[in-house]
Amino acid sequence: KAQLPKMAHSLCVLFNFLAGVLRMRLLSWGRGVWGLAGLLVVSAAAHAQANWPDRPVRVIVPFPASGATDLVARVVTQRVAADLGQQLVVDNKPGAGGTLGTAEAAKAAPDGYTLLLTTSSTHAISPHLMPKLAYDPRKDFVPVAHVADAPSVLLVTNSLPAKTVGELIAYAKAHPGKLNYATSGNGTIVHLNTAAFSAQAGVDMTHIPYKGTALAIPDLIAGQTHVLFDSLPTGMPHAKAGRLRALAVTSEKRSTLAPELPTLAESGLPGYSSVTWFGVYLPAGAPPALVDRVHKAFAKAVQAPEVAESLAKLGVEPAAPRTPAQFGAMVQADSNRWATVIRQHKISID
């Protein structure tokens, strides 16, 4: 009996020792399980990225069907889908100048199955006109691919004697405040193009906003307005028919769609360059490997001759090759430029 307490104590010590060993084993095993689970998750994610896409991809276009952005998206995604062997579904989400659909895209999972195909409007212009946007163009998106560019053409009414940009500037300076320029509305790319032109040229013209350039063209032909920066597809037919006079294009280099026209930079405004760009974004958080895979898919499609031919019919040129980082830098430079123009001219939307 005297030995029983000692035996009990020894058994307790042994039990605690064994329990401690078991606990350590379980902890070690648990860490191994969690580590294995982590490796499996990483491996699954890497596998999913390498095999993107293995199901249809949704491409949000934040503008109406049959508009320029929608048509560009359908031309390009059709070729991407053919190359990848998987369907890309264009989903039009228009409203508030493209910002509603863009905000929806910002909330999507960054897994490559929701893309945004948009323009300079939502990422370089609207942020400076609409300070309460539901998205941040830099923080909520990853730039992926620069797809295409649409330059504008500087048109003047035939009643003006100016046949070159230099002559237009000289005439405007000799008649300050007497020339009217038409736009498709406050804060549009047409308005910003003309404001930037006026500032660099040092001329004073009166703004006449319309609800679209199609409504502005008849007054320009009639001489009630004098200047308009229009898209090539809608503006050049009037110039070629002799109803208006085309003086220059806004792109950095001469446009393949109107090679006979000089650029504004060539015409006495060095550094002037403006295009409506079209590009692809992923929601923030997309892995670099996925960004690279999506980028390569769109870059390859844009270089296809039939894509370039289809885009030309829309008045759009395939973008020069750019990495995602270079595309992002281009967009930021564009955004900075328009921020300055908007601030200097106190431009606001209705």
Give your account of this protein's structure:
It contains 11 helices and 10 strands. With 350 residues, it is of the alpha/beta class. Strands 1, 2, 3, 4, 5, 6, 7, 8, 9 and 10 form a 10-stranded mixed sheet that branches. The longest helix has 47 residues. The radius of gyration is 29 Å and the shape is elongated.
Quickly list its features:
single chain; 10-stranded mixed β-sheet; elongated
What is the strand and helix layout of this fold?
Layout: H1 4-50, E1 57-61, H2 68-84, E2 88-92, H3 99-106, E3 114-119, H4 120-129, E4 141-157, H5 165-174, E5 180-183, H6 189-201, E6 206-209, H7 213-222, E7 227-231, H8 232-240, E8 244-249, E9 275-283, H9 288-302, H10 305-313, E10 317-318, H11 324-344
Give a quick summary of the entry:
The protein is of the alpha/beta class. The chain has helices at residues 4-50, 68-84, 99-106, 120-129, 165-174, 189-201, 213-222, 232-240, 288-302, 305-313, 324-344; strands spanning 57-61, 88-92, 114-119, 141-157, 180-183, 206-209, 227-231, 244-249, 275-283, 317-318.
